[in-house]
Design goal:
It is built from five helices and five strands, in the order H-E-H-H-H-E-E-E-E-H. The protein is of the alpha+beta class. The longest helix has 21 residues.
Amino acid sequence: MGKRKKESAEVLKEARKNQYFAKLRNVPTSPRKMRLVADMVRGVEVFKALGILKFSNKEAARRVEKLLRSAIANWEQKNDRKADAGELYVSTIFVDCAPMLKRLRPAPQGRGYRIRKRSNHVTIYVDSIDNKA
């Protein structure tokens, strides 16, 4: 590894120490459906977001709820204390496309229709409310 690359890697590593996040990769639901759930909790206080996700009837909400609990646990582990109500909020959440499984469905007259089984990656960042201001 070159000197410049190593220095920039160290800077990124140092910056990540102050970020609290969790990633969920290769979720077998379409990104469009997952983004609907992500939009519900973006910018919301974490315990309120957990309530929103718990009572949502979308299948993707259960996965995002588990991911949010993981991000809160990461914050607690890095700060050596428990998260209080009103202390954390979902600062950033985004959904990216993941590799697509391409399948064929039999169609009339010997043809085949392509089925695209989409998947996604979800990343969620939590931050303290006092850092927001």
